Amino acid sequence: MTSEPLAAPLTDAEREFARGWKLVATDLDGTVIPRDRPVSARTLAAFAACERAGIPVVPVTGRPPRWVTPLAAEAGLRGQVVCANGAIVFDLDSEEFVRQHPIPVDVVREVAARLRPALPGIGFALESIEGFRREDAYATRFDSGLEERVAPFGELLRDAPPIVKILAKCPGTLSDEMVAIAARELGDLVNVTHSNAADSLIEIMAAGVSKASTLAEVAADRGITAAGVVAFGDMPNDLEMLRWAGRSYAMADGHPEALDAADAVAPECGNDGVAQVLERLLSSRER
């Protein structure tokens, strides 16, 4: 699919979609959160306007819940958030885990066994609803000091709660290349993606689990189908969601695969691209 540019006048496709529009699904980092900057006042105002119109905003992110809660408070978001690329649904109001899609322990072991010879120097971390644990070879920038355990891989699985996401780093190999190698080695054993092309990091969920699969569950609970959902994203971990939603936008500065997967292109994250689109769709409903 080739994305159409976001033109100044409302397109016929936008007008048609807005008539049955029921839910906003948005990635966070690189989509509504510019690098090293908070969510803008314009974006917060657009989210609030959607909520007043009866259109809930559901964050759909690769972040774990511990990274989402402070941001949600800042953005005034409530209700459910899809975390860990669809592996978790967390309720911001009750602070409870509503859904989890774990990876079987034998599959976790098999993933590591297949990837170590294919990606020399690889290090693994494991994400569960109870916390984060990692090997020494997995160097962390954000969760240092918060780990439940730092130990050899076998020890990470000892007494482990259900693992919802495997993270793997291989310094010197870019994320796109890592995904290609992992896809070749792992096949349909799991779902492999990444959320930052500049990092040497891939994210691995259970087979069939993606932002789209879990967003579909969250939407269905509200009686909403894909046709009523507008989705925003910028990276390969957004691809399934962008393809699934009734109307989707990739950020202009997003990954080429995201641009190809979406229906249209939104302005860059730093230029409040999501807010610009939401304002357009809301204006169509008001006419």
Describe the structure.
A hairpin with a 4-residue loop joins strand 3 and strand 4 (88-91). By secondary structure, the chain is α/β, with parallel strands linked by helices. The radius of gyration is 19 Å and the shape is globular. Helices cover 34% and strands 22% of the residues. Helix 2 (41-52) runs parallel beside helix 10 and helix 4 packs across helix 6. It is built from ten helices and 14 strands. The longest helix has 14 residues, at 105-118.
Key features?
287 residues, alpha/beta, 10 helices, five-stranded parallel β-sheet, disordered N terminus, 34% helix
Taken from the alpha-carbon principal axes, the silhouette is globular
Could you say which structural class the secondary elements and strand pairing correspond to? Answer: alpha/beta
Mean of residue pLDDT values? 92
Multimeric status of the protein: single chain
Strand arrangement across the biggest beta sheet: 8-7-6-9-11-10
Q: How many helices?
A: 10
Helix content range: 25-40%
Low-confidence stretches: 1-5
Radius of gyration: 19 Å
Which secondary structure elements does this structure contain, and how are they paired or packed?
Layout: H1 12-19, E1 23-26, H2 41-52, E2 57-59, H3 65-75, E3 80-83, E4 88-91, E5 96-100, H4 105-118, E6 123-128, E7 131-134, E8 149-150, H5 153-156, E9 163-169, H6 175-186, E10 190-193, E11 201-206, H7 211-221, E12 229-233, H8 239-244, E13 247-251, H9 256-261, E14 264-266, H10 273-286
Parallel strand pairs: 1-2, 1-12, 7-8, 12-13, 13-14
Antiparallel strand pairs: 3-4, 4-5, 6-7, 6-9, 9-11, 10-11
